[in-house]
Amino acid sequence: MPAKRPPVPLSRERIIDAALHIADGQGLRRLTMRRLGDALQVEAMAIYHHLPRGKDALMDALAEHVTTVHAEPGESWQESARAWCRASRAALREHPGVLALALTKPPRGRAAVAIREQTDQLADAGLADPAGAVRALRAYVFGAVAVEVQQSGWAEPSGDEDEPWRPPSRGGGSPAADADFEHGLDALLAGLGAPRTR
């Protein structure tokens, strides 16, 4: 008889992965501490050892996870900005179930550090107003992904346990959506690089 495999230790990373799986597959309203504990095969209270503030801390952690993006600096500020926007779009589309958190939670922790990193990259590349550019780029990416997710047919369920669930399509990603995103990004970058008039 083979020896039983030891249980995988509970960790913050495992908790976040399981929570993302529930949110993307069943909707954010169905992400409860009890359901998360069941998915992890632990008592719900065990999660509080890693997230002492419970559900609030979990929501913050999920938002931080999908908005923490790093991109290598390019040869120009435009290339750096484009790389960051593409990486951010991919991260958000991967987890449509927590898009609402990404849109409403202020950047904290690693997400805030990543934003400062992006701002420094654009400043080092010579962009006159890197902080303003980052705000505009984030607004564009978040808005574009929100439209893509809406058009993909992904929808948050009402919370009724008897409601049939339609699996998400991971936020679209069609060639038309890609082309629309790049076209809008080109226009935004051109505007950010244009001389300011008073």
Summarize the structure.
The chain has nine helices and no strands. By secondary structure, the chain is mainly α.
Give the helix tally.
9
User: Main beta sheet: strand number and arrangement?
Assistant: none
Q: Work out the helicity level.
A: 55-70%
β-sheet strand percentage: under 5%
- Give the H and E element order: HHHHHHHHH
Looking at the structure, what is the overall shape? elongated
Question: What is the CA-atom radius of gyration, in angstroms?
Answer: 19 Å
Number of strands: 0
Query: What is the straight-line distance between the termini?
Result: 79 Å
Oligomer: single chain
Flag low-confidence runs: 162-172
The secondary-structure class comes to mainly alpha
Mean pLDDT score:
88
Q: In words, what does this structure look like?
A:
By secondary structure, the protein is mainly α. Helix content is 62%, strand content 0%. Helix 8 runs antiparallel to helix 9 (175-193). The longest helix has 23 residues, at 130-152. It is elongated and about 60 Å long. 30% of the residues are buried. The model is unreliable at 162-172 (pLDDT under 50).
